[in-house]
From TrEMBL:
Residues 177-223 are annotated as: Disordered. Keywords: RNA-binding. One of its GO terms (cellular component) is cytosol. The keyword Nucleotide-binding does not apply. One of its GO terms (molecular function) is mRNA binding. This is NTF2 domain-containing protein. PROSITE patterns: NTF2_DOMAIN. It comes from Rhododendron simsii.
Amino acid sequence: MDTQTSSPPPPPPAKVIGKAFVEQYYHMLYESPELVHRFYQESSVLSRPNRNGEMTSVTTTEQRIDSIEDMICSFHYKNYKAEIKTADAQESYKDGVIVLVTGCLTGMDDIRRKFKQTFFLAPQDKGYFVLNDVFRYVEDSEPLESNKVIVNGIHDAPLASITPDPGPAKVYVQANTSRVDPTKTEKQAPIPVAHDPVTEPSAPSASGSVNAPQSGNAQEEAEGHSIYVRNLPLNVTDSQLEEEFTKFGPIKQGGVQV
């Protein structure tokens, strides 16, 4: 009678393995952290950030205070409360399983910090052990400064440091302004666009001012006169120009064009 050799059953899906591991690991980590080193073997590598944010890696083969067991106990996990957000698993090399965990840790100071932790579970005779373990806190995004803008996902410089635009801009000023002499401006031709280098004026701001031309820079257009202003910042707006030039006389509605 021939004996039939049965093949070993296939391993459970990675999702099942990852879920079971996460439940066991984090329960033991915060209840009995001194026993967590049992998940690791001599070939295991554990990485944690130090106080400077630089990653430090240790193994159980090092017979010093920075071994895996001592490093885990040095974090005093009993003083923290863990909240697991997600746990994702994926089949990997030689029937191994990669597990990615995200969550939050709350310490005695009631500060809640987000973290990510990645494990590589390597198969052994009975189950799996942690071959690689990488942990990192994830800081929240910093708020943007109020005087900065984002163009196509790139942080632009503050308004005052943007390179002026060499192209001209139009500001229409009514002819009845008290600062512009109609007898002079009617006889003057529009200023041509100069190609020679010109002095770059500072960007207009709420506290600064722009020197308006008193003569020689006006052109009669529509019901008033037009003034061409060169070398404006790239992000200057109609409202900024209108605010500056209303100091020198009224401007008709919609008269500012950039």
